[in-house]
Specification:
There is one protein chain. This protein is of the alpha+beta class and 73 residues long. The chain has 2 domains: 39 residues; 32 residues, no CATH class. It has 4 helices and 2 strands; from the N terminus they run H-H-H-E-E-H. One of its GO terms (molecular function) is proton-transporting ATP synthase activity, rotational mechanism. This is Mitochondrial ATP synthase epsilon chain domain-containing protein. InterPro entries: ATP_synth_F1_esu_mt, ATP_synth_F1_esu_sf_mt.
Length: 73
Amino acid sequence: MAYWKAAGLTYNRYLAVAARAVRRSLQDGPRAAAERRGQMDLRFAKWENGKQGEVKGLGQANEEAMAQTAGSK
């Protein structure tokens, strides 16, 4: 079994955590360029019972999920 599955992460969450760790390990100049590339402008909404829920940015949703995961441990 993959370690990210054993840790209870989705593959996308695993990739986001790994990318953030790599970006944070860079020196200042390359780090700034990598942070700009890492910013996402994707949006999504959950649909329930044929009605669209709140539209959220993917980055915002990831931050909220990470905070919620950290708080539950």
